[in-house]
Amino acid sequence: MRSQASVLHLDLDAFFAAVEQRDKPSLRGKPVVVGGVGGRGVVATASYEARVHGVRSAMSTREARSRCPHAAFLSGRFHAYREASGVVMGLLREVSPLVEPLSLDEAFVDLEQAGLPDLEVATVTDFAQDLRRRVHEATDGLTASVGVATSKLLAKIASDLDKPDGLVVVAPGTEQELLRPMRATIIPGVGPATAERLRRAGITTVADLEEAGLDELVRLLGRAHGGGLHLLSRARDDRPVVAEREAKSVSVEGTYDTDLSDLRLIEGLLARQAGEVATRLRAAGLSGRTVTIKVRFHDFTTLSRSTTLASPTDHGPTVARSARALLAELVAGPDTGPQVRAGVRLLGVGVSGLADWVQEDLFADAEDDGAEEEDEELPEPPRARHLGAWAPGMDVVHAELGRGWVWGAGRGVVTVRFETRETPAGPVRSFPDDDPALRAWTPPVPEEPAQDPLSGPA
């Protein structure tokens, strides 16, 4: 913990939903829910207008619809989110060379490197207020909540205390006074299972954690976990702001609207995902040794299996071969085999243990040499949630009417509202879903990629 409040945490408010409201004038001030829009969808972000109806992140879309049926349910536009995030992260890097992004919508900033005249509370407060104003202007209206404190722990907690569009500066020496009344779950590492174990021991607040002492927490949770909570409950957090966070893995996964039970189809989908992972690895100049598959069954049980290769690879067929072998291991299991055959709702392939060099796979099959596997003729899988032809919220352009976004689609018809960030709320028109005048719109590709190839969604 530092002696001065010099760690800043910035969190963009209801980020995905706020970008949609910014870019779609007809949705401003109205409830918006971004996430999976199918029967098995999950809420990624809800606007504050939707939150007053009880809609929350990680809630099923089905429940969100029951709580707020009049909300706009949108599938998400990651190109728009990455663009807005890039603007904000670029602004943060202008004020300090030490910026640690945690996700598209939040980051830590080390104010010791920001060139401020001093780090007194009044100075950092004025700086943070100005930073919030600059973010609002640079992003055409997005708001950010900011916390400033003597550590990462306190800065992140502080940024959540006055949402949306708020600022909280925790003065040095007041950290424990702030923490003590809070629920123990405010401390990183106190998830549902840990919270229940602590509750059974009569520990529900940070003050209770502090009073319990090191020996009791170690007895309840083990030396590493208990020791960590002992320090954090006393606001002791010396973690530095780290400008570059190395990618630890590259992965691809998909969720399907209908359970998969055809083993040949499952195997083929894993092979395709393995090819996508390998393509990402090569684009980043990386390779990896550990191949992992992730399988979520019809009952939401999720399992993963991993294998480690003799040397790093970026070779699609090699990754695919390992993924198929791991699937075969699951299918052969007396417990997992029946689960696979009963239905799979999510599949994923990842590679970790990354390196910046590749060694030839001497055990590759001869027919694999020098080329990616060609896709087999597989049955068409049930369409993943995010692969709809006309997904609600997606950007489109009409040959005569210009740009707009998909209001809804179904039964051979797609309905579009024609408006953009720069226009007033526009008219709504419907078209046959195969109308040649209507197509998806994507922003122009910059000549120089603006971000790390690994930073997009998996």
Automatic annotation (TrEMBL):
Residues 7-191 form the UmuC domain. GO terms for molecular function: damaged DNA binding; DNA-directed DNA polymerase activity; magnesium ion binding. InterPro entries: DNA/RNA_pol_sf, DNA_pol_Y-fam_lit_finger_sf, DNA_pol_Y-fam_little_finger, DNA_polymerase-Y, DNApol_IV, Rev_trsase/Diguanyl_cyclase, UmuC. Belongs to the DNA polymerase type-Y family. Its cofactor is Mg(2+). One of its GO terms (cellular component) is cytosol. Binds 2 magnesium ions per subunit. Poorly processive, error-prone DNA polymerase involved in untargeted mutagenesis. Copies undamaged DNA at stalled replication forks, which arise in vivo from mismatched or misaligned primer ends. These misaligned primers can be extended by PolIV. Exhibits no 3'-5' exonuclease (proofreading) activity. May be involved in translesional synthesis, in conjunction with the beta clamp from PolIII. The record marks F16 as: Substrate discrimination. PROSITE patterns: UMUC. Monomer. Residues 367-387, 419-458 are annotated as: Disordered. The gene is dinB. This is DNA polymerase IV.
